[in-house]
């Protein structure tokens, strides 16, 4: 393959990776809007994300194994084609206003996506000489990181610009990219790599698929705020039981398979097992991006949505760090980059947890996000992919890469439920702290206290913003006055009716006036209370980074070439 063809092919694979990563990041924030236009409940709309995640996770090891059998380029072309068809159908479903149509389309899209990232990463690694392999994989990591981080902001921009009813545009932007990539893949011929001709592992594909689905459903339904209650609920426990039953069956089937979908020998090697553990932890830590816009808005008292621009800033540092880290791998080692990246992540999370939450200053915030961006760029994919590709024969790279992506996806699935628990706990604390400062009025204090502590108000506090909390409280108090008006009027028995109305109106006006004087106090209480939740969240991420750092220390500190 010529140098020109090699460069064009690299661009095409990077475009495919960018598209796949962007699609996941851009759709998640739009789920609520899509649900509203399709007239479905919030519980139903979560399946727009859940179904995609499940099928994506199941398809990765299977497509990875098929890539080992039929060639990486062939399966990548198939995956891009399937992803493009799925994206087109997802967009069309908006015109038919059909939720079931959308779910079928998302399933098709997810199967295609399951082959994009792992197969592309394997191909890029195999297409470049050892002395340039780290830099090439670094570009893969950089593109993936940038797409993941800017996706939510881009999705919000598109919906704000064209309107929520035009959410089909979020899917249609994939179509021209798919067409360009497919044309290039068809016209460029590549050197043939050795592929395996062993029997297809049908039973392993079925059992592994069922096991992954059961495990993912258990993980995604866990509620860490009410851990034991959710653990034993019908939404969690049955899936755990099924996964436990399937695990020994999976081990038995795969240990006897001639060419297993999930190769158990990978888990027996210390080096690869360490990489899998790190991948799970990195996946769990990456989901902090979901909560960063809210954190930035809370710290700087920005309107809801403006905090996303700071996530874009972090994406810039991540996009720089990934390819730079890849070049450093070629010079030093994957272990060196991982250790450095986790140190950066620890510095960043500690800065956000201990300094930003107390000083509420933009400079420490930017510094903390910069270190986190560097840490994510160094650790998210490049060094892990490099170690995997230097630890297995060429004919197994597709399946090994897919196993790595699957384990990272399990971390991604677990993380939001874990991290949102800190926000939920802080939101629950807001009500009690607000009641301590609200004006006291005879006959109304108990009603306001009961309402503020109610589940609907707690949910409102969790989803509010420091710039909207006062209007939320003010509207709530006004509603409580209106609800309590008959009882308050009864307390004024003996007073003429027209005077009662005037007295009640005066009471409400005086209370609201006192409340207006507490605006800054209410905002500060909300800001401080929510920041306590964010502080615990970042300290948890710091602990995850420390554990990953310790595991990384067990990796060999040397460069290796791809196995011949």
UniProtKB/TrEMBL annotation:
The keyword Endoplasmic reticulum does not apply. CDD domains: MFS_MMR_MDR_like. It is found in: Cell membrane. Keywords: Cell membrane, Membrane, Transmembrane, Transmembrane helix, Transport. Residues 9-560 form the Major facilitator superfamily (MFS) profile domain. One of its GO terms (cellular component) is plasma membrane. Gene3D superfamilies: MFS general substrate transporter like domains, Multidrug resistance protein D. One of its GO terms (molecular function) is transmembrane transporter activity. It is a multi-pass membrane protein. Pfam families: MFS_1. It comes from the Bacteria. This is Drug:H+ antiporter-2 (14 Spanner) (DHA2) family drug resistance MFS transporter. It comes from Clostridium thermobutyricum.
């Amino acid at each position: 393959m010529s140098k020109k063809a090699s460069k064009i092919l690299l661009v095409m694979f990077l475009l495919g990776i960018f598209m796949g990563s962007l699609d996941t990041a851009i759709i998640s924030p739009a789920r609520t809007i899509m649900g509203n236009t399709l007239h479905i409940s919030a519980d139903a709309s979560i399946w727009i994300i859940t179904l995609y995640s499940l099928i994506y996770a199941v398809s990765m090891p299977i497509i990875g194994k098929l890539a080992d059998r039929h060639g990486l380029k062939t399966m990548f072309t198939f995956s891009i084609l399937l992803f493009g068809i799925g994206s087109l159908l997802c967009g069309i479903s908006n015109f038919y206003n059909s939720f079931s149509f959308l779910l079928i389309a998302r399933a098709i899209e997810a199967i295609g996506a399951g082959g994009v990232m792992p197969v592309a990463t394997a191909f890029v690694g195999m297409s470049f000489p050892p002395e340039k392999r780290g830099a090439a994989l670094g570009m893969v990591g950089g593109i993936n990181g940038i797409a993941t981080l800017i996706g939510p902001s881009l999705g919000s921009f598109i919906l704000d610009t064209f309107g929520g009813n035009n959410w089909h545009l979020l899917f249609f932007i994939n179509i021209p990219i798919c067409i360009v990539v497919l044309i290039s893949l068809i016209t460029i011929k590549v050197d043939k790599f050795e592929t395996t001709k062993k029997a297809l592992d049908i039973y392993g594909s079925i059992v592994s698929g069922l096991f992954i689905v059961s495990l993912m459903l258990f993980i995604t339904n866990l509620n860490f705020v009410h851990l034991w209650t959710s653990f034993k609920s019908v939404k969690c426990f049955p899936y755990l039981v099924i996964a436990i039953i399937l695990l020994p069956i999976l081990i038995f089937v795969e240990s006897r398979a001639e060419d297993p979908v999930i190769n158990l020998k990978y888990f027996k090697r210390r080096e690869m097992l360490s990489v899998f553990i790190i991948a799970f932890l990195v996946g769990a830590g990456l989901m902090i991006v979901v909560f960063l816009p809210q954190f930035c808005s809370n710290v700087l008292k920005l309107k809801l949505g403006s905090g996303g621009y700071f996530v874009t800033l972090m994406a810039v540092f991540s996009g720089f760090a990934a390819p730079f880290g890849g070049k450093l791998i070629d010079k030093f080692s994957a272990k060196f980059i991982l250790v450095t990246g986790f140190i950066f992540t620890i510095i960043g999370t500690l800065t956000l947890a201990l300094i930003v939450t107390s000083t509420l200053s933009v400079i420490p915030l930017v510094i903390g996000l910069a270190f986190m961006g560097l840490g994510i760029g160094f650790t998210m994919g490049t060094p892990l992919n490099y170690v995997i590709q230097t630890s297995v024969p060429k004919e197994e790279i597709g399946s090994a890469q897919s196993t790595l992506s699957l384990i990272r996806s399990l971390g991604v699935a677990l993380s939001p439920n874990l991290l949102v628990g800190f926000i939920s706990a802080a939101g629950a604390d807001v009500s009690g702290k607000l009641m301590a400062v609200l004006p006291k009025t005879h006959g109304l204090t108990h009603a306001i206290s009961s309402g503020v502590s109610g589940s609907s108000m707690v949910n409102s506090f969790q989803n509010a913003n420091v710039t909207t909390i006062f209007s939320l409280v003010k509207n709530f108090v006004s509603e409580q006055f209106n609800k309590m008006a008959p009882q308050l009027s009864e307390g004024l028995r003996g007073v003429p009716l027209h005077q009662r109305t005037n007295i009640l109106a005066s009471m409400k006006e005086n209370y609201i006036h006192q409340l207006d004087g507490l605006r800054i106090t209410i905002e500060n209480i909300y800001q401080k209370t929510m920041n306590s939740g964010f502080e615990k969240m970042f300290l948890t991420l710091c602990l995850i980074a420390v554990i990953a750092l310790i595991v990384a220390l067990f990796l060999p500190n040397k460069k290796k070439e791809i196995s011949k």
